[in-house]
Amino acid sequence: MTYSAHRRYPLQGRKDLLVAAASRFAPDTVIADLSDQARLGLRGSGTPQWCSQNRLPFPEAINGVSEADGLRLARLGRYELLILADETGVFPRDFGALPPRTYSAYRGETWGWFRIAGAGAMDLFSAMTSTPLEATALTGKTVLQTTLCGVDAVVLARQTGHAFAADILLDIASSHSFIEGCLSL
After folding, report:
1. Are the beta carbons of 171 and 155 closer than 8 angstroms?
2. DSSP 120-176
3. What torsion do the CA atoms of 44, 45, 51, 57 make, to the nearest 10 degrees?
4. Bridge partners, 74 (sequence order)
5. Long-range contacts of the stretch 90-93 (C-beta < 8 A, 24+)
6. How many whole angstroms separate alpha carbon 53 and alpha carbon 50?
7. How far apart are CA 73 and CA 28, in angstroms?
């Protein structure tokens, strides 16, 4: 999967909005726009076979997350999978062709991706939603499908020691509304 340098994202060039929204909670809190980073979505009953062909673990449960080769695989439905690249922003290798009954979910093209992190990240996240963060949701092994700032979102949250971070994926057309919602908290 390749991301075009010519592609425009809704908040491209608007880092000022991200900084303004994050800094309201703590000076070192960050909202990063990762919408140009590699991610892949798959659907269909052949998705577990695709994982097997690519030596990747298909998460056991819906809303479960597995990790392998610098990838996080989040199971969003019975046969729906979201695959996020690691911090490098690229997939470590090319994947094989899609087997029968496996279809692209176009997550790279249709979802915006944001990461909140820093000292005030937990406070910022808590202000965005009424969904309580259970201890299990902070292991990085669980997906939260919830509403943040009035926008439906998929969240992979993780707490390591005192550090909290959350990857937030939402409809790319709602990216600006999401940040505006953060600014109004």
Report:
1. no
2. THHHHHHHH-S----GGGGEEEEEEEEEETTEEEEEEEEEETTEEEEEEEEEGGGHH
3. 110
4. 65, 82
5. 90/38, 91/1, 91/38, 91/40, 93/69
6. 5
7. 29
Distance, first Cα to last Cα, the chain: 36
Pairwise CA distance, residues 185 & 170, whole Å:
18
SS3 40: strand
Residue 120 predicted with pLDDT over 60: yes
From residue 179, alpha-carbon distances to 6, 26, 55, 102, 114 in Å are 23, 16, 37, 33, 10
Per the listing, tokens 């600006």 go with 176
Q: Is 184 helix (H, G, I), strand (E, B) or coil?
A: coil
Q: What is the C-alpha to C-alpha distance for residues 73 and 59, in angstroms, rounded to an integer?
A: 7
Q: What is the pLDDT of residues 84-98, one digit of tens each?
A: 987 776 787 788 889
Report the amino acid identity of residue 165: A
Q: How do beta strands 163-171 and 111-117 pair?
A: antiparallel
Average pLDDT over residues 91-114: 87
Query: 15-36+110-183: which CATH architecture?
Result: 2-Layer Sandwich (3.30)
User: Using an 8 Å Cβ cutoff, are 89 and 3 in contact?
Assistant: no
Q: What is the mean pLDDT of residues 137-151?
A: 87
> Mapping DSSP to helix (H, G, I), strand (E, B) and coil, where does residue 51 land?
helix
